[in-house]
Amino acid sequence: MQDDDRTTGETPLETSGSTRIGGTQIRDDGTGPSLVAHRQKLLVVDGPDRGVEIELSGTHLGIGTAGGNDLVLNDPTVSRRHCEIIVRGERYLVRDLGSTNGTTIDGTPIVEAFLQPNARLRLGDTEILFQPKKKWVRVEAAEGDHFGELYGVSGAMRSVFGLLQKVSTTELSVILIGETGTGKELAARAIHGASRRAQKPFVVVDCGAISENLIESELFGHERGAFTGADRARTGAFELAHSGTIFLDELGELPLELQPKLLRALEQREVKRLGAPRPVEVDVRVIAATNRNLSEESAAGNFREDLFYRLAEVVIELPPLRNRREDIPVITKRLVDEATRSGQTTVRGIADEAMQMLISRDWPGNVRELRNVLRRATALATADVLRAHDLASIEPAIVRDPQAGAATATSIDVGETLAIKDARDRWIAPMEREYLVRILRRTSGNLDAAAAAAGLHRKSLERLLRQHGLRAADVLR
Prior knowledge:
There is one protein chain. This protein is of the alpha+beta class. Helices cover 32% and strands 25% of the residues. It is built from 16 helices and 27 strands. The strands form seven sheets. Strands 1, 2, 3, 4, 5, 10, 11, 13 and 14 form a nine-stranded antiparallel sheet that branches. A five-stranded mixed sheet has the order 7-6-8-9-12, with no helix packed on it. Helix 1 packs across helix 2 and helix 8 packs across helix 10.
């Protein structure tokens, strides 16, 4: 791994493989990706804190007298949350946060403006010299076959592992993008587990599974009596994740009207419970996941651009399973071994013909769908080696049509050796999946129409689709 420090006056060589997302750049010049870390040096040259100097990595830096700021000043003319510096592409943006005495750049009052290297910021009686740098870090592909609970030997996944390992040691916010079932939550847990926050809480919020009228309470909490039905106080996810990591799954489903409140919580590092008289400070790292292109959603006005930039310090894409078929044997072995150790099956291996069936399938639901198929097949297998007919008996579509639905209920072994709840679940799951496939086809993939036809709330339908590793686009093609 090679490091290369450059000032902002030395713009990095542009390459066709350079990707800019938020304030972080991931560049690939054909020899592997590089990650650029923005380092901002601030030197107090006038005021009560004269001589104080800090240098921080990151794309967001807060200045004020409150303890949660990156640069904490002792100047009574400076506000608690006075201003912030944000990386925007190649440039640095300073934004006044509604301070009492305002912010100036080289003597010019500003609300929001771009900073040049060696610019002088004045906040009340304090003057600060701004000296940014960039640190290019070559990210080598990982040598192992896994990172956390993510497994793979393909070049694509080893590059992902290298990026995950590198960002784990930073405090950068991360957006994980990828299709349903590619392992975004596993990646988030792996980042947390390899970070300095590993022994602190990891809190998951599924933005797509919570009704719009409850998600604000889920994130920020509420006091007793804050609204009808609030018969007791509730601690929100941000408070629960204090000093640890919060994982915002399905970020693209976050209601537009709630996005400014999330942005405010991230920028001010504090949250206010519904009905509470004052906010509380929180220290959390944010990792988010989505299967949407949030850059395009921002351009279309469906997702706030400033929130996107705040969260997209690093964006890592997890490739679909069909684009890394060489990983299927590794993942399959891992899943079968896992089931054997837990006593769910006596299967200890998989026949070559069965493995080829798995490799040839497109897996629209990715690893989640593969896991579900293997769980049923190994539980119902009659020998200690999983064979092709074991797969075909519970998933005929794996033989005749990789994109078709699951087997009908008449092909499922009732599993009389299981507890009735487990047997019922294994009987119902293929029928439920087939029902979802058919209703999506009948409604041409219109989720509102499909939910109405099924007698479900749309959010409930979306949750079921995720559980079965289904996407409307894959079912219809």
